[in-house]
Amino acid sequence: MPAKPLLPETLVxxxxxxxxxxxxxxxxxxxxxxxxxxxxxxxxxxGVKNGELLVRLPPERHTELMEMQNTRELSxxxxxxxxxxxxxxxxATREHWQFWLDQALAYNPRAKASPxxxxxxxxxxxxKRHSVFDSDL
Length: 137
Description:
Blueprint: H1 8-21, E1 27-32, E2 35-40, E3 43-49, E4 52-56, H2 62-66, E5 71-73, E6 83-86, H3 94-107
Antiparallel strand pairs: 1-2, 2-3, 3-4, 4-6, 5-6
């Protein structure tokens, strides 16, 4: 099944983030859970989905940031402390845009990287058969 095309607002936002991060050599773009993410130094820092900006901020400021206009938690059950969606009105001015970028990039060096998943060893396609004669009796 092909991926849904990205909204024009999303494409503009992705390009704006690319431009803002172009001077950094430690940025990687990846799609995670349907979100176009920008990893900085191997850690999720910013993302875009449906024209909204995802920012990763200090978990200890979660309550304070949750009170800001045009923001909402990534996870309504509170399981993802420090991750917020910022609606377009929340980054519509240059000042607000820069605020979110600065906050996310300032926190990034302190953010914990997710452990890399171990990849399962590739099998040759045939399972090894065991019998009662294989034991070390």
